[in-house]
Amino acid sequence: MATPLPLPIVPRTVPLSACAPAPRGNRPSWLKVRFPQGPNYTELRTLMREQKLHTICEEAMCPNIGECWENRTATFLILGEVCTRNCGFCSVTTGRPTGVDLDEPRRLAEAVERIGLRHIVITSVTRDDLPDGGAAIFAETIRQLRERVPGCGIEVLTPDFQGNWDALETVMNARPDIFNHNMETVPRLYGRVRPKAIYKQSLELLKRAKDLAPEVASKSGLMVGLGEEREELLQVFADLRASDVDVLTVGQYLRPTMKHLPVERYVDPEEFAELKTVANDLGFRHVESGPLVRSSYHAHEQVPSRL
After folding, report:
1. pLDDT at 1
2. Measured on CA atoms in the order 192, 194, 197, 203, is the torsion positive or negative?
3. What does the alpha-carbon distance between residue 203 and residue 199 come to, in Å, rounded to a whole number?
4. % helix / strand / coil in the chain, to the nearest 5?
5. Rounded Cα distance, 307 and 292, in Å
6. Fold of 36-306
7. pLDDT, position 269
8. What is the CA radius of gyration of the chain?
9. Rama region for 23: left / alpha / beta (φ>0; ψ in -120 to 50; rest)
10. Cβ(127)–Cβ(167) under 8 Å?
11. CB-based contacts of 204, cutoff 8 Å, min separation 6
12. What's the confidence (pLDDT) of residue 81?
């Protein structure tokens, strides 16, 4: 792995870990959004219901659903709705999945063709029960989309495949426009946030993806507000650049339910702007940093030809 880049020195008066007690009461004003509306949003919502498609946009109650759907961008969940992992931040059902729907790629591509999406993000639950982690389904979905909707941008947001590099190669051989794998948080917090993941393994996944397909944009995302220190966060930025990652997203962690990890701190918009400046100075080709930023935010703008 490449030598980590040196961290930039930026003056700061308040560390990210300030405010020890968990926030209580109403969320700050910058985390409030308007009810989604607009002709594209309404049309897509109707078509999603008719096609019985599942999107992370709705199931995770993403605050940017209105904006993304107006841009005809959506994130689809494949490989079922049951995850083999139990991450501290995620509300997806944990358990033992059963079977794989081999016809899912075709049906999803047909639906996207009918809906007329400009950009699609394909993600999945983690399927540690499968030898390839579901890589073949990811690849077939990309191929079906290329055939049926050639003008549609394609991003994949994959699990770590438990370090199965053959599985990763299967996905990269299908040539998505963007390959995304989220680091989520700093290494020190992995035991609570991503208990079955390995920080260095996720970094290696991103680096190998770029080595396998240099023309494909690589991407990763982080949540803040989980108790990370500023220096830890900037080290992850540097590690990602050392792994040749092109695109970075940084957003506020929001607790799905009382059973999930608490929010340690609400990071204000000015701090997000500063983090964007630091990340840009490190050399990322595109950075989205803000309280409401999620992994797929403005994804349609991050295709290599548009960077």
Report:
1. 46
2. negative
3. 6
4. 40, 15, 45
5. 22
6. TIM Barrel (3.20.20)
7. 95
8. 19
9. beta
10. no
11. 1, 163, 243
12. 83
DSSP of 29-94: GGG--PPP-SHHHHHHHHHHHHHT--BHHHHTT-TTHHHHHHTTEEEEEES-SEES---TT--SEE
Residues of the chain with pLDDT under 50: 1-22, 24
Structure tokens at 216: 């494909």
CA distances from 271 to 59, 175, 182, 230, 258 (A): 28, 35, 21, 11, 26
In 3D space, the residue among 147, 127, 150 whose CA is nearest the CA of residue 137 turns out to be: 127
Structure tokens at 176: 């998505």
Q: Give the pLDDT confidence score for residue 74 in this predicted structure.
A: 74
Tell me if 31 sits within 8 A of 254, measured CB to CB: yes
What is the 3-class SS of 89-110, one letter each residue?
CCCCEECCCCCCCCCHHHHHHH
Report the C-alpha gap between 215 and 195 in whole angstroms. Answer: 32
Nearest to 150 by CA among 178, 173, 169, 177: 177
Q: In what order do the strands lie in the sheet with 153-157?
A: 73-78, 119-124, 153-157, 178-180, 217-224, 247-252, 286-289
According to the model, what pLDDT value does residue 94 have? 84
Largest distance between two CA atoms of the chain: 54
Q: Hunting for tokens 């191929």 — which residue is that?
A: 143
What crossing angle do the helices spanning 39-51 and 104-115 adopt, rounded to 10°? 150
What pLDDT is recorded for position 13? 34
How far is 205 from 250, CA to CA, in rounded Å?
Answer: 19
Give dist(CA 236, CA 84) in Å, integer: 26
Q: What is the pLDDT of residue 151?
A: 87
pLDDT at 251: 94
Q: How far is CA 98 from CA 2, 68, 82, in A?
A: 39, 31, 9
